[in-house]
Amino acid sequence: MGNFDKLKENVLKANKALVSYGLVIFTWGNASEIDREKGVVAIKPSGVSYDEMSVEDIVVTDLEGNTVEGKLKPSSDLKTHLELYKRFPKIGGVVHTHSTFATAWAQAGREVVCSGTTHADYFYGPVPVTEALTEKDTKDYERMSGAVIAETFEKENRDYEATPAVLLKGHAPFTWGKDAIRAAENAAVLEEVCKTAFITREILGHSPEIEKHIADKHYFRKHGSNAYYGQKKEK
Ligand SMILES: [Zn+2]
């Protein structure tokens, strides 16, 4: 086994999960995972179809984006992923998709308020939307996309671990997690949350906020030191 085989396998699995969760078509979307001890990130190659993608195609880079292992070009969104790993030191995986409903909310430039327990189980408080990138930002577009996401959390003192998702304004969602597969799961949950949020808004004409005590109950029974949801080994 090569040095990075496990990391590459995890990343392949997460990228293929994006297809099975119905979150991507063509080659849209990408998943990555970091090994912070080794100082490397494994990511989907650019423009390779998910059907044909094998573990050898996964590209390993250092934290500056230089290829360490792999023959193919890394995803063009690599620099966004790297910026998120730098700015959010506790995350282990990042996912980007253009899934329909989450992208629609990103295009609308609207945050997704917590209207129900599905949302509260995974995301604490609203899923925020970023500011638009400036014209100057487009010179270093992918890195600045990561920077504007990080700023969205920093400026409002949001906890990126408690809300592992964001809508990049006019673009699409990014999610993260402790590894690539958790980031992919969060992308799937975000899509469902955005879909039901849209339908709820259609029914009412506005987005209602769930009672805070119910949202808190749902979030904290799955997260933090007093969590009791699921089986014991699940952390
Ligand atoms: Zn994109």
Number of domains: 1
Number of strands: 7
Bound molecules: zinc ion
Beta percentage is 5-15%
Task: Outline the structure in words.
The protein is α+β, with helices and mostly antiparallel strands and 235 residues long. The chain is globular, with a radius of gyration of 17 Å. It has helices at residues 5-20, 78-87, 100-108, 117-122, 141-155, 180-204, 212-222; strands spanning 30-35, 40-43, 59-62, 67-69, 93-96, 165-168, 172-177. A 7-stranded antiparallel sheet has the order 4-3-2-1-5-7-6, with helices on both faces. It starts with a helix and ends in a 13-residue tail after the last helix. Helix content is 39%, strand content 13%. It has a single domain (5-222), classed as L-fuculose-1-phosphate Aldolase. Bound molecules: zinc ion. Zinc ion binds at residues 96, 98, 171-172.
Features:
235 residues, alpha+beta, L-fuculose-1-phosphate Aldolase, seven-stranded antiparallel beta sheet, 39% helix, globular, binds zinc ion
Quick structural summary:
Helices cover 39% and strands 13% of the residues.
